[in-house]
Amino acid sequence: MADLNKDRYYLVQEDILPEAIKKTIRVKEILKLGQAKTINEAVDMMDLSRSAYYKYKDFVFPFYEIAQGKIVLISIAISNESGMLSSILKAIAEAKGSILTINQDIPMQGIANVSISFETKDMTTNLEDLLRYIRTLRGVIKVDIVGQGQ
Predict the structure, then answer these.
(1) pTM (2 decimals)?
(2) Measured between alpha carbons, how far is 120 from 95 in angstroms, rounded to an integer?
(3) Can you give the pLDDT at residue 35?
(4) Are 90 and 30 members of one domain?
């Protein structure tokens, strides 16, 4: 019988993760950025045991890394002002995201909810940076990742 729990993924907010997992993620970042030459050096920098690093390293990674080359669906609450949706679409296009669908609800009480799906495979900006930028746009109230697929 197939293991129903195999290959199930969850999007979890970082602040609830155990320290060993947070440190493992940071060690991977240190190695990727070349701030340490060896795994030993990186785990020492983070005060993490090598065994804990090896236990978690293949199972934790930032969402934006697994979203690369995928289709991402985001939900955005924006103020009902002229040009708001256009500025968001421009940001995605400038990052070389390929927009697939756009759905906008009728604005209620000055707020419109928008769902945008786009492909990330040709993006020149990582997803996390793009979403951070969209959150800074005038009139953007909230940005959430709804999901991602193939």
Answers:
(1) 0.59
(2) 9
(3) 93
(4) no
